[in-house]
Amino acid sequence: MDLQKHAQPADTAPRPADLRASDADRDRVADILRDALAEGRLTAEEHAERVEGVLHTKTVGELDAFIRDLPAAHERPAASPYASVPHRPQPGSLPADADTSVVAVFSSAVRRGRWRAGRRVHAFAVFGSVEIDLSEAVFEYQQVVIKAVSVFGDVQIRVPENVSLRGTGGSVLGNFEVSTLDSVQSDAPVIYVDGWSVLGNVEARPRRGRFVADILDRVQGKVERAHDKMDRKLRKHLDR
User: Fold this and answer.
1) How many C-beta atoms lie closer than 10 Å to residue 128's C-beta?
2) What is the dihedral of CA 138, 144, 150, 156, to 10 degrees?
3) If you ran DSSP here, which 8-state letter would residue 215 be given?
4) Are 204 and 228 in contact (CB under 8 A)?
């Protein structure tokens, strides 16, 4: 094979702005827009319109267009925008018994809503389906290990967007897929999905638009304080 003939010239490399945007890129821009709303740089209508556009962008250059007129877009980025994920719990550091077990044999089982996620969760699907939804769960511990096993079945795991997600496992004539997720919050929960699928499916990914409540409350409080500040300024101006 003529390697020189098939080598791609350096000048044909895509520009950074033409690269496909990732979910992390969209989250970064959404955070900037959220802060701009809290600071009064954007109206609620402008914020909603731009966020809607961010969700449908395809390239990094298209994302930059939504924050080009905001000061935060031109600040020097930190060394790393994400918090370091704690080391995986060592064997024996967690109880062998599960705090919560969800089992489906020729049936379906669901765990969702407001529930307490312990340190260990077991999910088993044998000719059945299991759904574990952590988007509204209360995390009592920072690290949660989910053991997921699917045999001719399906295990679906959904997590909030502002946690870290890791996975280790495999499949035999099936599918094992964990969408790696990194949180910008140093104290955010870390979820480890371990397991196997045999002629089945195990899938873990974030559920868009859902966030851990205690982390979200800080953002909501920031927006409310910004609105109160704007109201005080307006009243002061009207009293003149």
Assistant:
1) 20
2) 40
3) H
4) no
Q: d(Cα 221, Cα 227) in Å, to the nearest integer? A: 10
Which residues are within 8 A (CB) of 79 and not within 5 positions of it... i.e. 6 or more apart? none
Is there a contact between 143 and 89 (Cβ–Cβ < 8 Å)?
Answer: yes
Instruction: Give the model confidence (pLDDT) of 165-219 as tens digits.
Output: 888 888 999 999 998 888 877 778 899 999 999 999 999 998 876 777 654 444 4
Q: How far apart are CA 82 and CA 104, in angstroms?
A: 36
Do the beta carbons of residue 86 and residue 166 sit within 8 Å? no
Cβ atoms of 199 and 151 within 8 Å: the answer is: yes
Q: What pTM, to 2 d.p., does this model score?
A: 0.54
176-212 CB burial, b ≥16 within 10 A, e <16: bebeebbbbeeebbbbbbbbbbeebbbbbbbeeebbb
Which helix (H) or strand (E) covers residue 32, if one does? helix 23-38
Gap between the terminal Cα atoms of the chain = 82
How far apart CA 186 and CA 183 sit, in angstroms, is 7
Where are the extended beta strands (E) located within 89-163?
A: 100-105, 108-111, 116-117, 120-126, 129-133, 138-139, 143-151, 154-159
